[in-house]
Amino acid sequence: MYYFIVFLLLLVAQLLYFIIAKKFSIIDKPNERSSHTKPTIRGGGVIFVLAVLLAWIMGVASWPLALGIVLVGAVSMVDDIRPLHQLPRISVHLLATGLLIYDISQGTSLGLWIPVLFFLLIGWTNLFNFMDGINGITVLYALVALFTFYQLPELEGDQELVALVGISALVFAWFNVRKKAKTFAGDVGSISMAMVLGYLMIKVIFITQNPFYLFFFSLYGIDACMTIFIRLSKKENIFNPHRTHLYQYLANEKGFSHLSISFAYAVLQLLINMLWIYGIGLSEIHWLAGLLFVVILVPLYFVLRRFAQPVENNLKTS
């Protein structure tokens, strides 16, 4: 009953947002680099922020986490409505990242680890945002990550938070995981969700001292990182919009449906996560297994990318 009430509250909030978005024309209009073809409400992922705020009100999320997510959510919402200069966005992201790291490290001196954690959390947030390009991919991938984190005994104290954010993702999924989505997450959704997931990831790594939990994000990580590497090698501006991720090639060049690609990413990542939890194990660091995993995954990614990208691009990279 408790979770059902939360579901109803977030559903009502989502429907109210649709009314507001239509009134103020918070609409994502397709352009030549879009993977969608009709105007769609942008910023529906604001309910991820509301879920974290609700978690704080209910006492299952800390104030630094809630404040950090509300700050990035607010600046991203403004940016969704009217593009902002980079300075206010970067400043707020740094402040929010600092709040989340402060929350994770309370009572412990991090020392030289602070810049590393800043780099990981901000880097992950941007990678997750870059991958938000087709119907369903962001929310399905997030649901897989939340489901995985919910099972970890090291994060037992965060299960209520994970559940509330998961419910908000389910509400959003109803309107997004469609052939013709009713709403997109927008920066407010992708960035706030990225920070929640990054917070949970850094927390479990901090607790266990095992960096291999990062494999829970391996598919997003390899697609985003390898795409950035390829674009940098071509001297492209990586901050300009593009359609050169593997999932975009599969959708736009190969013609696979958005939902089939989104479910494929989610299901494959879920299988990888279950393999690491119940197969290989994360109670200790298995260096050989980690190395073999990377050695298999990276070449496989480039094989799929070569298959999916346009013929002229294949010729250039031959």
Topology:
Blueprint: H1 2-23, E1 27-28, E2 40-41, H2 46-57, H3 63-81, H4 86-104, H5 113-130, H6 137-151, H7 159-176, H8 186-208, H9 218-233, H10 246-253, H11 258-280, H12 287-308, H13 311-316
Antiparallel strand pairs: 1-2
Total strands: 2
The side-by-side strand order for the widest beta sheet comes to 1-2
Q: How do the helices and strands follow one another from N- to C-terminus?
A: HEEHHHHHHHHHHHH
Secondary structure class reads mainly alpha
The unreliable regions are none
Sheet with the most strands, sense and barrel status: 2 strands, antiparallel
Helix content: 55-70%
- Overall mean pLDDT score? 91
**Total tally of structural domains:** 1
Estimate the global geometry from the Cα principal axes: globular
Taking Cα atoms only, what radius of gyration do you get, to the nearest Å? 19 Å
With helices defined by DSSP (H or I, 4 residues minimum), what is the helix count? 13
Walkthrough of the structure:
- This protein has helices at residues 2-23, 46-57, 63-81, 86-104, 113-130, 137-151, 159-176, 186-208, 218-233, 246-253, 258-280, 287-308, 311-316, and strands at residues 27-28, 40-41.
- With 318 residues, it is an all-alpha fold.
- It has a two-stranded antiparallel sheet with strand order 1-2.
- The longest helix is centred in the middle third of the chain and has 23 residues, at 186-208.
Please provide a brief summary of the model.
Helices cover 69% and strands 1% of the residues.
